[in-house]
Amino acid sequence: MKKLALGLALSLAVTTSAWAHFQLLYTPESALERGEIIQLRHVFTHPFDDEHTMDMGRQHDSDELSPVEAFYVIHRGNKTDLRDTLKKISWQGNANAGAAYQSEYGARRMGDHVLVLKPAPYFEANEDTYIQQITKLIVNVAGMPTDWNANLGLKAEIVPLSKPYALWTGSTFSGVVMSQGKPVPFAELEIEYLNHDIDIAKNAMGKRRVEAPQDSFVTLSLITDANGTFTFGLPKSGWWGFAAVGVGPDEEYRGKELSQDAVIWVQVRDMK
Amino acid sequence: MHKILGPLLFIALLAFSTHAFAHTALMSCFDEGDDTITCEGGFSDGSSAAGIEFLVKQNDEVILKTRLNEFSEVNFEKPEGDYQAVFNAGEGHVVTVDGKNIF
Questions:
Q1: Which of A99, A206, A215, A216 is deepest in the core (most CB within 10 A)?
Q2: R_g of chain B, CA atoms, integer Å
């Protein structure tokens, strides 16, 4: 009986730890009427349940957190390094606080600003593996489309086929999962809703929005087709994260298994 | 040779802009912080606005009449007082930005 109880407890623990990690790259508004300086938050979290905030850059054999490998923006095809704009913060989740970053970016010029974050691989002790999520966020100024569907040739990337900042509730988002610029057939996608208000002034997660009827609804799953493309219906306004798991070419980091993932965030609006 | 190429290029740009008339006209302006204003124009399908007419009006009078350059933008000296920047791509495709909303 004790063994059964222990087995059940272990099984629950494993189930919990298996919920999807998502590198959040957040800004309040992705479709700007005119150019402005935008606030960004970089948090490694579980967007739906917020049951644990990870320390970005955690390593298996050191208390020192590794810095972000790359953070830049592409605008009209030009790349600008933004690593100097990153400031370390402690992000307060509903369960715990984790090491994260904040930054500001002057999205002044008209068009798309494709922000790319490549954090250092994070050591996930529960799985004895590293996770690196190369994350894209696209901000548009004044409605002029310029770079939103560019294939940047990243090691792991989701290239949108729908503008990620112009999505109505009830519409769909389509994309192509890429590895080094080439589509990945039958790639596994994890999808989560950012299910908490974000308090950017306090660097904290706020109130929860919806409850999942069952665990399958926390992290939704999708497999890309033979061409690496996918389409997902968007049932609720807010931010949705898409993660293509293990599609990057790097499979090992510091002697341990590495999952090199592609993440993209899209913002959905209600028709009012 | 350059004398011929210049007008030809401009005509080509105008022809290309015509294609965009089925789409929404867009303009965004910002203060450069050096007493000049930059306005960028475009169309919702991503088409270039090079060669499109651009006006600055003050008290209903046109104080500047020019065209957007090859990068679909224009830079001009910030007028004193109230003014309006006008992107004029033809009927139904006019965008006006009030100077009060340019930061």
A1: A99
A2: 14
B chain contacts of residue A141, beta-carbon cutoff 8 Å: 28
Closest CA to B66 of B98, B97, B41: B41
Kindly report the number of other CB atoms within 10 A of residue A202's CB atom.
10
CA atoms within 13 A on the CB side of A24: 36
Kindly list the residues from chain B whose CB atom is less than 8 angstroms away from the CB atom of residue A34.
Answer: 28-30, 101, 103
Which of B17, B27, B29, B30 is most worth mutating to test chain A (most A CB atoms within 10 A of its CB)?
B30
Q: Is the ipTM reported for this complex over the cut 0.85?
A: no
Q: Any idea what the Cα angle at residue A210 is, between residues A207 and A215, rounded to 5°? A: 120
- Determine contact: A153 vs chain B, CB below 8 A: no
For B74, residues 6+ apart whose C-beta sits below 8 A from its C-beta are B38, B39, B54, B66, B67, B68
pLDDT digits (tens, 9 = 90+) for A198-244: 999 999 999 999 999 999 999 999 999 999 999 999 999 999 999 99
